[in-house]
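Thanks for the sequence, V.! I ran Enoyl CoA hydratase right away. Repeating your input here for the record:
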Amino acid sequence: MECELSMSDERVLYGLRVHDEGHVRVVTLDRPERRNPIDLEIRPVLTAVFDEADADPDVRAVVLTGRDGAFCSGGDLSIMHKMAPHDSVPRLQAAQRIARAIAGSGTPVVAAVDGGAVAAGLGLALCCDRVVASTTAVFDTGFVRVGLGTDLAASWALARRVGVARAQQMMIFPERLRGPEAFNRGLVDVVVPPEDVLGRALDDARRLATLPPRALSLLKRHFASMGNDLDQAIEDEIAIQAELMTTDDYAEGIAAALEKRPANFTGR
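Predicted structure:
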């Protein structure tokens, strides 16, 4: 697995493509055959990409997108159900480092969402400072369908956008929201046709890149300090997920999702 980043016109890393357009860095999730999951191998690579962008004064904004009509399908269920419970905490910590690298950086990040932003993919999108969605994008809050709580700071990010009470309702009654409804509910900032989503995100990032970087960095960190505490939310998510991954209901939820059948939860 390659985490070291060497500068070139386009860098191909594990599950990612990275290139610069002026002062805008474009990060593309690049496993379309799996709908761009956040698997174990991509987590340190994606974290390193965002840490590098934040440390580079020539990078003034970042666009995060997914390849071939999919944003991010979240965790890879085909791998998750094979993992031993004692592996859950390191896996979760690796995912949460991505959330910290995006939400905790001083560099503004624009998400360009086409296709599904599912579970951890939802958290990935909502941790960004601006979300541009296509009319056909789908935002899926369905963690609980497979017996899990939230991941990748999704609880923190969703609550910041829609409020705690509405975020709770969206998690305990899972929803799949198309781009226009997600806009009406406050999850996204702009909705455009699918063919325009990346272009609009790039335009917005270029606008951000013309503004004073220090002012943007301090404003981003100032707003991040308001309301719910990111670090506490992340620690809570890790503890909840680690406990739930030991339950029979989690095993049943993953099996049902893979077998495309209704789950039979027993409370154990």
